[in-house]
Structures are given as C-alpha cells and as structure tokens.
Specification:
Shape: globular
Helix content: 40-55%
Structural class: alpha/beta
Strand order of the largest sheet: 3-2-1-4-5-6-7
C-alpha cells in the first residue's frame, strides 16, 4: 500500500487540490496537510466522496514543534510508513526593489516557502528512508537561468533555497534510495492567478502539474533524482 503526503492542500481551485486527486485516483492512501482545519476537512471529504482513502492534518508547517507532532501522528496512524512527500505549501508576493524591500514580507516568503519544506522534510525523512521513497519540492521559474526576478527578492531567494535543500536531500538520499526532485513551473492557471494576471497569459495547467508530481512519485522515475524540472 502506497502512502503519500501532500502539504499545501488548502482552498478549492488551487494546485494542491488537483495533485491530491491525481495521487488518490491511482490508489494511494492520501494524506493532505494545510494550516486551516476547515480546508483540510473539506478536501478530505471530497477525496473520500470520490472513493479515495484519505486523511487530513491541520498543521502550521513553519512551527518546528507542530511539524514534530505531525510526524508523530503520521508514524502512529500509518505504521511508520511513508512512500512519497510532496512539499507544495508556499505562496507568492512581491517584496519590492532590494533597497526598498519589505523585510517582513521577504521574511514571510522564506517562512512559507523554504522553512515549511525544510521542517517537513527534516521530520519525515526517516519514514521516507524506511520506504525508499520520493520527495517532490516546488521551486519556480524564478530559479532558472535568465529568469526575471525584479521585485521578487524574498520569493526568488526562498525558492532558490528550496532547490538547494532538494539537492542536499538528493545527495544524502542516494545511499538510502530516497529520491528528491523539484518542479519549476511558470505561472499556474488558478482562479486567483487569472484574477490577478488575466486570461491571456500562457499558464501551466493544474492537471499538468499533477501529472508531473504523479510521475516523480512513481516507479517510472526511479532513476530521476536531484533534478529541477521546468514546466512552462
């Protein structure tokens, strides 16, 4: 039985919803995590209504103690078994030109994008090592060569740190047969993005993201680790 945990599965219409359904549809026990308990309950109810085996956890993934408690619950409730971890939790905001940048906002970008991924990986890596599992991180096109990151110092630097984390985990995971990769998508079609940027933008579809995640969490990608995969 394959057990997959996905963070950032919150509001309806976002990427996490599509990823969770894609993972659940292939028969995985699907564990969804978000900060808001009502969002978690709603997503779990939808997954179960579709016939999935799903459980949810409300957790502040930027809090080390809360993440430790999450790991303890997953260990207890699923026999210490975890095959896949998808670090989707995060968010985007402009912090402004570097010399005028909003320090609090830049710090928040680090907290919700990097710290959440780091703490979750740190806490769950022993379970993934036992299962010889896979970890998927979410970077951004902002980390790619030639990307335009004006006004994005907080977000772009946090996503670059996520890539550094992924590479460290991939290197450390090779002897344990734990794989780690990162997706670097362009703008993703969500209701909030369309409201902010309009409908004429070239978007990556949520279903395309979900398919890439499903591949990286499958035996078909057994030889793939330490990679940043562009989606555009």
């Amino acid at each position: 039985m394959t057990v997959s945990l996905i963070t950032g599965v919150g509001a309806r219409g976002q990427v996490g919803e599509a990823v969770a359904h894609a993972i659940a549809q292939r028969g995985d026990v699907t564990l969804v995590v978000s900060r808001n308990a009502s969002d978690v309950d709603e997503r779990v109810s939808e997954l179960r209504a579709a016939g999935a085996r799903a459980s949810g956890y409300a957790c502040d993934l930027s809090n080390v103690q809360a993440v430790a408690e999450l790991a303890a619950r997953v260990t207890r409730e699923h026999g210490g078994h975890l095959d896949n971890l998808v670090n989707l939790a995060g968010g985007f905001a402009l912090s402004g030109p570097v010399a005028e940048s909003d320090v609090a906002l830049a710090s928040r970008m680090w907290s919700i994008n990097f710290l959440t991924a780091y703490l979750t990986t740190r806490a769950l890596l022993p379970l993934l090592a036992a299962a010889q599992g896979s970890i998927v991180y979410f970077a951004s096109e902002s980390v790619l060569e030639g990307a335009k990151t004006k006004g994005q110092v907080g977000y772009a630097s946090a996503k670059s740190a996520v890539v550094a984390l992924m590479r460290s985990v991939a290197d450390e995971g090779r002897p344990l047969n734990v794989r780690a990769n990162a997706l670097a998508p362009a703008s993703i079609r969500t209701a909030s993005n369309e409201a902010a940027m309009g409908s004429d933008v070239r978007y990556v579809e949520r279903e395309e993201i979900a398919a890439a995640v499903a591949f990286l969490c499958s035996p078909a990608s057994q030889a793939v680790t330490g990679q940043v995969i562009r989606l555009s």
